[in-house]
Amino acid sequence: MSRSYTQITLADRRRLHHLVAANVPINEMARQLGRHRSTIYREIKRNTFHDRELPDYDGYYSTVAEGIAKERRRRLRKLQRHPTLRAEIVNQLEARWSPEQIAGRLLSDGLSLVRVCKETIYRFIYSKEDYGLGLYQYLPEARRKRRPMRSRKPRDGAFPATHRISQRPDFVGDRSRFGHWEGDLLIFQRPFGHANVTTLVERKSRYAVLIKNPSRHSRPIMDKIIRAFSPLPAFARQSFTFDRGTEFAGFRALEDGIGACSWFCDPSAPWQKGTVENTNKRIPRYLPGTTDLAVVSQRDLLHLTHHINNQPRKCLGYRTPTEVFTAHLQEGS
């Protein structure tokens, strides 16, 4: 086996196609092609054809793999050929723009004659040549390694079909009844540990509750929600809508503890719980992502929720969430 790496050729890919079709082990493929097994594994992983519309045709094909590899190299060279465009993209990433926002703005403004899609920017960020720039740290989730598409494991076992948001009663969706909440988790920078904050917002009044958690383990999070909501009358805590984060997998404890139903958004659809998402955008003004929660107490969070809940809201006719929430409690008592 050669110690110097050379690009895989079309002839290599043709041989590899037959070996893959014959289900030959990776180690044997590497031996026959005179390559390291990691090279073969990476080649198959990166250049296998996938089509959501035609899943029966998914597989490794030599000419298709050659085309995928050439397109990937062409995309990376695009930013090398246009240093001004490259510098503009770097500046926007450092300003915390997402690759999709950057690509969309470049297209809408028409300032660049070179068209760039979000995939080109993602590949640029994680490429071997430019990884040292550390641009990944400006992405929303700041992943050191890019997570492949379709890599998220299905969670239907933890969140059964009977609890999907499509099964949620219409009166919850149209805000016609009081006592239905949305929940989410605010995550802070990793160097400060695993502490986080549960955000809960009542859909009709927009009344917010913030709860500090030491970790993302589901049952302790649910126990804290139960303790916080137990003093409320049953009509004020009828249901909760969450996303499919594993921190909410223990949702059955809410039904047992306070008699509340739980509903879950569709995968990758956080907009389906837009009330709490909107509230989460307000909180970083007072509690930025760089906050060390070790120095933030639950009392501090209570002061913050008091401040948020006492701001007049246009959607409430410029009444405050506290005023609307209190009025509903009095009506139901």
UniProtKB/TrEMBL annotation:
GO terms (BP aspect): DNA integration; DNA recombination; transposition
Sequence intervals crossing the membrane: none
Keyword annotations: DNA recombination
GO terms under cellular component: cytosol
Lineage per the UniProt record: Bacteria, Pseudomonadati, Pseudomonadota, Alphaproteobacteria, Hyphomicrobiales
GO MF annotations in UniProt: nucleic acid binding; transposase activity
Domain Integrase catalytic, chain residue ranges per copy: 165-329
Name this protein carries in UniProt: IS30 family transposase
InterPro entries: Integrase_cat-core, IS30-like_HTH, RNaseH-like_sf, RNaseH_sf, Transposase-Integrase, Transposase_IS30-like
Keyword hit for Repressor: no
Alphabetical list of NCBIfam families matching this protein: transpos_IS30
